[in-house]
TrEMBL record:
Domain CBM20: 593-696
Name of this protein: IPT/TIG domain-containing protein
Family matches, as InterPro entries: A-amylase/branching_C, A-amylase_C, Alpha_amylase, Carb-bd-like_fold, CBM20, GH, GH13_cat_dom, Glyco_hydro_b
Family of the protein in this entry: Belongs to the glycosyl hydrolase 13 family.
A single GO molecular function term of this UniProt record: starch binding
Essential cofactor(s): Ca(2+)
PANTHER family per record: ALPHA-AMYLASE 1, ALPHA-AMYLASE FAMILY MEMBER
Record organism: Paenibacillus roseus
Gene3D superfamilies according to UniProt: Glycosidases, Golgi alpha-mannosidase II, Immunoglobulins
UniProt cross-references to Pfam families, sorted A to Z: Alpha-amylase (PF00128), Alpha-amylase_C (PF02806), CBM_20 (PF00686), TIG (PF01833)
Keywords: Calcium, Metal-binding, Signal
Superkingdom as given in the UniProt entry: Bacteria
GO BP term, pick one: carbohydrate metabolic process
Amino acid sequence: MIALTNGNAPVQAAPDTSVLNQQNFSTDVIYQIVTDRFLDGNSANNPTGAAFSPGCQNLRVYCGGDWAGIIAKINDNYFTDLGISALWISQPVENIYAVINYSGVNNTAYHGYWARDFKKTNPAFGSMTEFQNLIQAAHAKNIKIIIDFAPNHTSPASETNPSFAENGRFYNNGVLMGSYTGDTSGYFHHNGGSNFATIEDGIYRNLYDLADFNHNNNTVDSYFKESIKLWLNMGIDGIRVDAVKHMPFGWQKSWMSYIYNYKPVFTFGEWFLGVNEISPENYHFANDSGMSLLDFEFGQTARQVFRDNTANMYDLDAMINRTAAAYTQIADQVTFIDNHDMDRFHTTGASARRLEQALAFTLTSRGVPAIYYGTEQYMTGNGDPDNRAMMTSFNRTSTAYQLTKKLALLRKTNPALAYGTTQQRWLNNDVYIYERKFGNNVTVIAINRGSAPVSISGLATSLPAGTYGDVLSGLLNGNSISASANGGVSTFTLGAGAVGVWQYTASASAPAIGNIGPDMGKAGNVVTIDGRGFGAAKGTVFFDTTAVTGATIVSWEDTQIKVVVPAIAAKKYQVKIRSSAGSDSNSYANYNVLSGDQVTVRFVVSGATTVFGENVYLAGNVAELGGWESAKAIGPMYNQVLHAYPTWYYDVSVPANTTLQYKYFKKNGQAIVWQSGNNRTFTTPTSGTATVHINW
Ligand code: NOJ
Ligand code: NOJ
Ligand code: CA
Ligand code: CA
């Protein structure tokens, strides 16, 4: 067999990656837009007076960007030519109109994070009809629309000064629901601003001065279910959830199960991590909430290596290995090198090549890459709001633009990038050569961030014998390589600052699962399985050993299967497929079957005294409470903000309309002391939220 491939002309046709697939974004490249800062397509909707800055001289107020501007760029193929197949736009909902003066400086809600009505649009971005036009225009070009969504809070408010800004007021499609001051319905938390010392503090106190929602309130809970339903009905393809570290995890899981039950779309949350920050709670959230996360560990490390020179290629490789082990669905986490909350990657005077290397790394790594608007135009700007300047140019010939285009195409054509494993193949302080592999598909990427050429000898790969042209056609000074029959690559020189990409695609010899979405659901929900080599004829889908065949398989194509979750016990499953020819795929781990519809219950236990180092946990008979396994129990519970020690509390997603058996236990190291007596019972509501409070 001759295995000669030309990097510029992939041997396989592009697989189906249409907007119809709202679960799997692994083959997509996301482009993040601050709507107000992209393009003013309709000056008639621009705010007036102090709220608006003509020419965007003042980056803290509105500058005029809108959905009409985004539509114009969709229609003139700016995104298509860049290889972009998903746009993440600012929160589309109506925001406060007030201009807030902080220490003599005017600020507005141009960023979209100061909501006042989650069921209306921000008129500065456009009307509901224009939003519909945006979805239609995007879908017509096979581009998905992801909305930012911030259910943690409304807007800046002062407990003691109701006339400050709009006092956090929120509306239900125009009907006033409540204000921060005089909040007799308990829609908000009133515990002051967070010092961020603990996760509990960040959840139940205000994020800065933002009026913080109480999601354990029935009205708030149903308001956010109804409002996300409205946007799902508008045809959105994905959701970026703001500030997930600052909302109760139980509420978010039950909200996700509501979304997945109604109209599942790819959903990823923002859990900010600083430089060198590694958070087990972050991993746990990504693995258990049903939501993916923005991969800050990836982003921060890439910035250290390629931008700040505070880490090297060993650190980059360690991050890749660490995250692959920590996140159960690594291909679903969203990677990036900068965003609207960080200094832009590129700085004035810095080498453009470092940005290009970081982009190449992101576009060829596991996860769903998100590119911040203007990166392809080498925009600079440190800190907020300088990192949110008006888009400077729409030039399609920049190196970064061309690079993105070529690698976005490769993500669509070679599934090794979207779904593959990552293996380090050659490493020193400045050189990282890694291989992505999925089935018989291989991509090898070599990056030299150093200022001297490096002779690469002894490089082993999975490439079949042949000569491989650089997929980037030398754009970043890569050249071709030759592999021998065992995949060994003849010694070559990787130029100073060079990036080379070599790829091989072949049809599948066995079925291989690359992605499953959503990764959580109840019996009866439909799950989308993407991969290669499933064959044309219906075979079998296994949830552990439970075989699903026939009518409960909704559709079966060579690269995609849709299957109904069978009525099986709630727990995490290994999903595997068997082709009609009897060939088995890999097992895709951790599909989470829930007990049924979910509601949020606040569990509170008083009088639970502990010694230093000892914590209280909650366990019970349903999977959502760990099925009596102490290692899967809920906790450590909280005891500082809403209730104080020795009272402990936690908001938990549990099956609706179910009589639960539960108990608390104290854990100190490995030692566990259960509550004495019979199991306690609690019947959960059919909808809404509840609280159950007992004494230890
Ligand atoms: C995180 C967002 O990305 C940031 O820009 C915003 O100000 C806060 N959350 C509050 O919504
Ligand atoms: C597990 C048992 O199944 C349950 O009934 C009991 O309450 C807890 N362990 C604590 O002992
Ligand atoms: Ca405008
Ligand atoms: Ca909160």
